[in-house]
C-alpha cells in the first residue's frame, strides 16, 4: 500500500502478482479507477473509464463493432497496407532529408482508427487533422508529466487552481466538439441497411434502444467511447513506432538483420502482409522487444476492486485503487535475462523461433486488456516492415551517442525528440 496524497493505493509489482490479480481474480480486479487529469472529461463514461454494466455493455459492443469493421468489406489489414503505401509516398518526397518522425507516425495510426470509427481517412496536410494530432500529442505529454503526478496526489485541492489540468480539459473538449460534429453528419446521412463505421453502428443501436430508460447507448457514451478509441488508438502505437525507430538508429546491426529477413521472406516487390509474420521470427521478436523496452504505460491504467477482496494474505477494501505496475513485469529479471538492455533474443528460443513470455504484457492482461490489441499488433508489424522494406534509416548522431532517455515518464512514457533520414533503397 502506498498513500497517494490522502488515498491508500495498492501497487501490484512483478509478473506473478499482476497475473494473480488481473487473470486469476479477474472479475474482482476489473473495476476502473479514475485518472485525476482526465476525470473531469470522462466522469465514468466511455468504454475506458466506465464500470459495472455500463463498461460491460460498451466493451462488448466496441469489440464486436471493431471486429466487424476490421474484418468487413475492407479488412484492417488492407486499411493498414493502403495507409503504409500513402506513407511511403510521403517519405519518398522527403528525399532523405532530416525529419522528426513524430507527425508521420501519428498520422498513420490516427488514420487507421479514423477509418474504423469515422469511416474516412484524412490527408496528411488537412489542417483539422493536423490540429487534432497536435492536441493529442500535447495531451499525452501533459498527462505523462511531473505536474500530472503531483495533481494525482493533491487533486481535491489543486483542481480549484489554474494549471496544466485545465489545458488537458480544454484539449479533450476540443476533440469532443470535433466528434460531435462528425456524429451529427453521420446522423443526417445514416442508412440503416448499410452502416459505414463504428459511429453509424452505434447510432443504430441507440435508435433500437431509445425506449429503454436504462440504456447505456446514448450520446454521451458515444462521444466519450469514440474519444477513448481515437486517443488510445493513436497515441500508443505511434509512440511505440517512434521508440522502435530510435532503437533501430541506436542498434543498426539489428535493423540490418530485420532487413535481411524482409528480403528473404517478402522480397522487395510486394507489400508485407500479416501472413508473413509467422515466417519472420526475428522481426517479430524485435517488435516484441520494442514494446517491452518502450514500456509505454509503466504504471498501467489504474484498476479498482469491485468488492472487499482477500489477496495474498491481505484484505483489500471495495473501491481501493490498484495500479498494476506493468513496468515491473516488462523488466522482470526472472523472465528477461538483461531487462535494462534492448535485446530481441529475449523473445527467441535457441532455435531462433519466437517464444512466448508470461511477463510480456504491454497491453495489460485480464478483462481490461487493451481493446485494440489486435489492431495495434497488425499496425506495428505492417508499418515497421513496410518502412524497412523501402528505406534504410540514418541519424545525424553516432549510434553510441544516441540517448534513449524518455522525454516524459509518468502515466505514459515518451521517447526523446530525434531526427531521422529515410533513405530510399
TrEMBL record:
Gene3D superfamilies: Cytochrome P450. It holds the Pfam family p450. Heme binds at residue 370. It is found in: Endoplasmic reticulum membrane; Microsome membrane. One of its GO terms (molecular function) is iron ion binding. It is a peripheral membrane protein. One of its GO terms (cellular component) is endoplasmic reticulum membrane. GO terms for biological process: epoxygenase P450 pathway; xenobiotic metabolic process. Its main location: endoplasmic reticulum. It comes from the Eukaryota. Coiled coil: none annotated. Its cofactor is heme. Keywords: Endoplasmic reticulum, Heme, Iron, Membrane, Metal-binding, Microsome, Monooxygenase, Oxidoreductase. Belongs to the cytochrome P450 family. This is Cytochrome P450 family 2 subfamily B member 6. The lineage of its organism: Eukaryota, Metazoa, Chordata, Craniata, Vertebrata.
Amino acid at each position: 500500500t502506498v498513500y497517494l496524497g490522502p488515498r491508500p493505493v495498492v501497487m501490484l509489482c512483478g509478473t506473478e502478482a499482476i497475473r494473480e490479480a488481473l487473470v486469476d481474480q479477474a472479475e474482482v480486479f476489473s473495476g476502473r479507477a479514475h485518472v485525476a487529469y482526465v476525470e473531469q472529461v470522462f466522469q465514468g463514461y466511455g468504454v475506458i473509464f466506465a464500470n459495472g454494466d455500463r463498461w460491460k455493455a460498451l466493451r462488448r459492443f466496441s469489440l464486436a463493432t471493431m471486429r466487424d469493421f476490421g474484418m468487413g468489406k475492407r479488412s484492417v489489414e488492407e486499411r493498414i497496407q493502403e495507409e503504409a503505401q500513402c506513407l511511403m509516398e510521403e517519405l519518398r518526397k522527403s528525399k532523405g532529408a532530416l525529419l522528426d518522425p513524430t507527425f508521420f507516425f501519428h498520422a498513420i495510426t490516427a488514420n487507421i482508427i479514423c477509418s474504423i470509427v469515422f469511416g474516412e481517412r484524412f490527408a496528411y496536410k488537412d489542417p483539422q487533422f493536423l490540429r487534432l494530432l497536435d492536441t493529442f500529442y500535447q495531451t499525452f505529454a501533459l498527462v505523462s508529466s511531473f505536474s500530472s503526478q503531483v495533481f494525482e496526489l493533491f487533486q481535491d485541492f489543486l483542481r480549484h487552481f489554474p494549471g496544466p489540468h485545465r489545458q488537458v480539459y480544454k484539449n479533450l473538449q476540443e476533440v469532443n466538439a470535433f466528434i460531435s460534429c462528425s456524429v451529427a453528419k453521420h446522423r443526417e446521412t445514416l442508412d440503416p441497411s448499410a452502416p459505414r463505421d463504428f459511429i453509424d453502428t452505434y447510432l443504430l443501436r441507440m435508435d433500437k434502444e431509445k425506449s429503454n430508460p436504462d440504456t447505456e447507448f446514448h450520446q454521451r457514451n458515444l462521444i466519450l467511447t469514440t474519444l477513448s478509441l481515437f486517443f488510445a488508438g493513436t497515441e500508443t502505437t505511434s509512440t511505440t513506432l517512434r521508440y522502435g525507430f530510435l532503437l533501430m538508429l541506436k542498434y543498426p546491426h539489428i535493423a540490418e538483420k530485420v532487413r535481411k529477413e524482409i528480403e528473404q521472406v517478402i522480397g522487395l516487390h510486394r507489400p508485407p502482409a500479416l501472413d508473413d509474420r509467422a515466417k519472420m521470427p526475428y522481426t517479430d521478436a524485435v517488435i516484441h522487444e520494442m514494446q517491452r523496452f518502450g514500456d509505454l504505460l509503466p504504471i498501467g491504467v489504474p484498476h479498482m476492486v469491485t468488492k472487499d477482496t482477500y489477496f495474498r494474505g491481505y484484505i483489500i477494501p471495495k473501491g481501493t485503487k490498484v495500479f498494476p505496475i506493468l513496468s515491473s513485469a516488462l523488466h522482470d529479471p526472472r523472465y528477461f535475462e538483461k531487462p535494462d538492455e534492448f535485446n530481441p533474443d529475449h523473445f527467441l528460443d535457441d532455435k531462433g523461433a519466437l517464444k512466448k513470455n508470461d511477463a510480456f504484457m504491454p497491453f495489460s492482461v485480464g478483462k481490461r486488456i487493451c481493446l485494440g490489441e489486435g489492431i495495434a499488433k497488425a499496425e506495428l508489424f505492417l508499418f515497421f516492415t513496410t518502412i524497412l522494406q523501402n528505406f534504410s534509416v540514418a541519424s545525424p548522431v553516432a549510434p553510441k551517442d544516441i540517448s534513449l532517455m524518455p522525454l516524459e515518464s509518468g502515466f505514459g512514457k515518451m521517447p526523446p525528440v530525434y531526427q531521422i533520414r529515410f533513405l530510399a533503397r
